[in-house]
Design brief:
Order of helices and strands: HHHHHHHHHHHHHHHHHEEHHH
Shape: rod-shaped
Number of helices: 20
Strand order of the largest sheet: 1-2
Length: 598
């Protein structure tokens, strides 16, 4: 019962045995009976067992408490490891657990738990700080500047505090910071654009941005500027509104500048008067986006320019008659250059009489003449191709006239100065003259096509161009026929002279000079000047003179009719019989006059 395995147990057993022996000796000395001895030994053993049982129970309770403390530490360790995401961390008490005493196991796990508690506290601080920044930036973006502490630290203990979760929060915070930076940059750009537009339009920049949000006037944009969606939308709406106002004012200013230029030109305003508005007239050739100078589109500038337009308009009304005459003169100049007959309803004399009598409003008359100018310019533009062809035809006709005069010159082959130049020009002129019929036909076709398209006649100085061209063709044909008859007549005269010489003797010496005397007349050039080469008149000439549009310039339709009557009249060539030729030769004693060289 008292046997133990340790040295202390052996000593205790020896002591107990000695005491028991001493007790038995005492009992013997006393004279106790065997029954009493057995009873007292049984009571002694019972007391010993109770002491051992009490010690065992105390030891068992201590062991249970150690197990409970160890289990609690392990559970706390597991919770901390799960919360902090330390899944790769292994508890030291799991290895050789059966051989390690409980107190040692508890001593091993307790420091680890304390370290993880400190780490958890640091992690919670990081989460609280990051969440506070996230909530602050989120509130700024959403438009709410106050912080909402929706998650307290007590709640954070129950959440995931792992590095992965912390990284997610840090990434989210970084994205929010980036978005905040982008919004600040965009708001700054919008504010700068609003500032530029307000300066251009002469508006109050401070009031404009304050209407969007008061914080936009702050100097420290990063701290005070509201970056919410409503602020961005408000700035964008303000920019669109300012751009619309800029477009309206720009167009209004352009219209005012156009009116100024028109009035200045009409009133012959001096450079000094115009220089006062040089700032706004400089935009006439600029686009809307190119105007950036502050105040250019302000209300004051528009009012000043409008006031100048009103002043010139009133002045224009007092000088309207002079302006009407000036515009009518401009219309006549355009018509003269383009060979278009001006509208007789606004003739200078008639317009002056109507203004003096008060029958018409001078402004309406001026507007009518301006409309006629626009219409004439448009018609002149559509006539360009035909007018170019007319110029080429007239140039060719000039060359033809020059060639006829050149062929009549008896000294054209002399060795004088410039003879070789005239000879080369004559060669080129013959090539050009051969193209005249084709030029005329093409010009007729072009003119008819133009008339068909425009549903009106193509008039050249009041005469239909097709009639001029047809008359030119008829006259040219008559001229060619007249030349042919003249050549035939000359051949007959030469034959009669030959027979006369055979009958009456040798040929008398010819008379010097050409018997066909040139009429001292000239042909007007395109600009109205007189060329140095004399031209033959059709009167007394063996061939009719060709008429070109130059012949009709400044004439009325009556001239055209008269010309057609003269040009289409039969040519009065006298048929010379053989007897008449002989009689004429015998009386005059000279040869017939030489015809002009064709």
């Amino acid at each position: 019962m008292f046997g133990m395995g340790s040295p202390n147990s052996d000593r205790t057993t020896t002591t107990c045995n000695a005491l028991l022996t001493e007790l038995q000796q005492i009992w013997n000395d006393i004279g106790e009976s065997e029954g009493d001895k057995d009873r007292m030994l049984w009571e002694l053993e019972k007391e010993c067992l109770e002491v051992y049982r009490r010690k065992v129970d105390e030891a068992a309770n201590a062991k249970a408490r150690l197990h409970q403390s160890l289990a609690a530490k392990e559970a706390e360790l597991a919770t901390l490891m799960a919360a902090l995401g330390e899944l790769n961390l292994q508890s030291p008490i799991t290895r050789e657990r059966r051989t390690t005493p409980l107190k040692e196991q508890l001593a091993l796990v307790t420091p680890l738990v304390e370290d993880l508690k400190l780490k958890k506290e640091e992690r919670i601080k990081q989460f609280v700080e990051i969440k506070a920044q996230i909530e602050k930036i989120t509130g700024e973006i959403s438009g709410y500047s106050h912080l909402i502490n929706a998650v307290a630290s007590s709640n954070l203990e129950e959440q995931d505090l792992s590095v992965r979760k912390l990284t997610e929060f840090q990434t989210h915070l970084h994205n929010l910071q980036k978005e905040k930076s982008e919004r600040l940059h965009k708001i700054l750009e919008c504010v700068n654009e609003v500032h530029s537009l307000c300066g251009l339009l002469g508006l109050d920049f401070g009031k404009t941005v304050s209407d969007v949000h008061p914080s936009l006037q702050g100097t420290n944009l990063e701290q005070s500027t509201n970056i919410s969606d409503s602020t961005l939308e408000g700035l964008e709406q303000a920019i669109r509104r300012l751009k619309t106002e800029r477009k309206v004012r720009f167009q209004k200013l352009k219209d005012i500048v156009a009116s100024l230029f028109e009035l200045w030109n009409l009133m012959d305003s001096t450079k000094e008067d115009r220089s006062n508005f040089s700032r706004i007239t400089s935009i006439s050739g600029s686009s809307e986006l190119e105007i950036v100078e502050p105040g250019t589109l302000s209300i004051d500038i528009l009012e000043q320019a409008s006031a100048e337009v009103d002043r010139l308009t009133k002045l224009k009304a007092s000088r309207m008659k002079e302006l009407v005459m000036k515009k009518r003169s401009e219309l006549e100049d355009i018509c003269h250059k383009t060979h278009i007959e001006p509208d007789p309803s606004t003739a200078a004399e008639k317009s002056s009489a109507m203004i003096d009598s008060g029958l018409v409003d001078p402004c309406e008359l001026l507007a009518n003449i301006e409309a006629q100018i626009i219409k004439t310019k448009a018609e002149a533009l559509s006539r360009n191709e035909i007018m170019d062809r007319i110029e080429r035809w007239l140039s060719a006709s000039d060359e033809e006239n020059w060639l006829e005069d050149y062929n009549q010159d008896e000294n054209r082959y002399s060795a004088g100065r410039g003879a070789h130049i005239n000879l080369k020009r004559a060669e080129r002129a013959r090539v050009t003259v051969n193209k005249i019929p084709a030029m005329v036909d093409n010009l007729i076709n072009k003119t008819l096509a133009w008339e068909s398209e425009k549903k009106k006649l193509f008039l050249y100085d009041g005469v239909r161009l097709v009639s001029i061209l047809e008359d030119f063709k008829v006259t040219r044909q008559q001229k060619e026929e007249a030349k042919k008859r003249y050549k035939d007549q000359k051949k007959l005269q030469d034959l009669l002279l030959t027979e006369k010489e055979a009958m009456y003797g040798s040929k008398p010496s010819p008379r010097k000079g050409n018997s066909f005397r040139k009429v001292n007349g000239y042909h007007l050039s395109r600009n109205g000047s007189m060329p140095p080469t004399p031209r033959r008149n059709s009167i007394g000439s063996p061939t009719p003179e060709l008429r070109t549009p130059r012949s009709y310039s400044g004439r009325q339709n009556g001239y055209f009719k008269e010309m057609r009557r003269l040009s289409t009249a039969p040519l009065n060539f006298v048929a010379i019989t053989k007897e008449d030729a002989m009689s004429s030769s015998s009386v005059c004693g000279s040869e017939p006059e030489s015809p002009p060289q064709g």
